Amino acid sequence: MRELKVVGLDIDGKRIICESDDPHEKFILRADDRLRAAIRGEKSAVSQSQPDAEVPSVLRPKEIQARIRAGASIEQVAEAAGVDISRVERFAHPVLLERSRAAELATAAHPVLADGPSVLTLLETVTTALIARGLDPDSTNWDAWRNEDGRWTVQLSWQAGRSDNVAHFRFTPGAHGGTVTAFDDAAAELIDPDFARPPLRPVAPVAQLDFEAAPPVAPAEPEPPQQEQPKPARARKAKGKPAVPAWEDVLLGVRSSGQR
């Protein structure tokens, strides 16, 4: 049986670092209830098995940073390791800065087209493509992570209407800013210099309609003045004419007024 000696505590303060006769060979001993009972000399507690007790997995700082560098978020690593987010944040911060710097360098690289690297940078090309599609280039987000082969994958995300879109590029650092190649169809369409073809997820302007306001009524054309119709002439009242005496009255000598 090999003998170990205590060297110190791990960075989280919950595990004990031990080593054997070889100083290059390290061991980690978890400070659980059984170890505390053994230190106090409680044999019954040491011999008691705890098969139902689940010990959360604790990742080492290098493992945390490796997962963050590969594209995982702080919340994903904390959930997978079963630890608090605050523990992961302590080791993730420098790696997140590294990822942000890689994405920034990739925007200054030159897209590789069919006839060779473009004169414009990736940022200039993407900005031109988004403006041609009626989108706001300032509302984009850039991110990057390192693959298992050591190369960087750069992600561009933007919103068109109500849909979220992403495009991925492969970034290769080098002279004059390096180069980037399209990794998916969305990335290939963004760096395509032919902006005259149908755009990627276009956004058509929506007319603002006011359904409450009544539509304007065109002013009525003025009617032509009506000519005054001549008033019908009033029938003149005929003046009374002297009555013509009857023939009998003439013979009898009777006047028109009825006097004789």
TrEMBL record:
InterPro entries: DUF3071, SepH-like. Residues 211-260 are annotated as: Disordered. Residues 1-171 form the DUF3071 domain. It comes from the Bacteria. Residues 216-227 have a biased composition (Pro residues). NCBIfam families: SepH. This is DUF3071 domain-containing protein. It comes from Mycolicibacterium agri.
